[in-house]
Amino acid sequence: MIAHAQFVRRGLRSLLPAAAAFLACGAAHASLIGYYSFNGNVLDSSGNGKNGTVHGTVQYTATPWGEALTLDGTSKSNYVTIPIDTTIASMPQMTYGGWFYMPQTPSQIEEMITNDDGGYDRTLEVRGGSWVAQNGPAGGWAAGPAVTPKQWTFVGVSYDNTAGTYLFDVGTHQYTGSTTFNNSSIAGVTYIGVNPFFNYEFDGSIANVFVYNQALTGAQLSQLEAAGPSGFAPEPGTVALFGLAGICGGAFHLLRRRQEAGR
Fold this sequence. Notes:
Elements (H helix, E strand, L loop, with lengths): L1 H29 L1 E5 L16 E3 L3 E5 L2 E7 L6 E4 L10 E9 L8 E5 L8 E5 L2 E5 L6 E6 L6 E8 L4 E6 L2 E6 L11 E3 L10 E10 L5 H10 L1 H4 L12 H17 L2
Helix pairs in contact: 1-4
């Protein structure tokens, strides 16, 4: 009995690091409130039931990891809405982004994610041939690198209204700054692929859009990008979150091996 008790105590101690990693995964998942792979549908794979709605007609095209939402940029009436309120009043801290592909160099403004009501609100877009994050007031955007056609690019932005700061991430580039945020925007819904006020539509493909109700750090955004479009995948019940896939997966693997060794 004594030997058995010592074995149990040693086993529990050996599980503590894995258990800690497991809890960290759960904490990261708590801030993910919407995830859309667009793998043939507009369903929310975060487990929060924030399923999207298709407006007009959209296409789903094949990618190396699944499918993506594809828009032609001409009709102005084909887009997706998601029932997530990304206004400052609802989410003073937030992060959203995804993976984007443009078949050619853009010649006009094109929208990816926004709830703009005409006041240049929080928005990810293409402007002047470059990836851009709108930060609130007119002219208050952060310009990133030029769009490289026919290449999937990770684009994300985090906003901290309390601190009055933003972090814009495009590929390996990150831009930070301060701004006076615009409190006027469309409540209760976020648009993907079109600006509802200016009617700019995206011409290209969109995959793996994510929304967090906290301002991610530069390191966390880099981890999301490093995981790649096929590695992010926070499907219900999985632990590939925040770029913690390796940590979480390792934790579960360690738990399984410890359990098997103890049988």
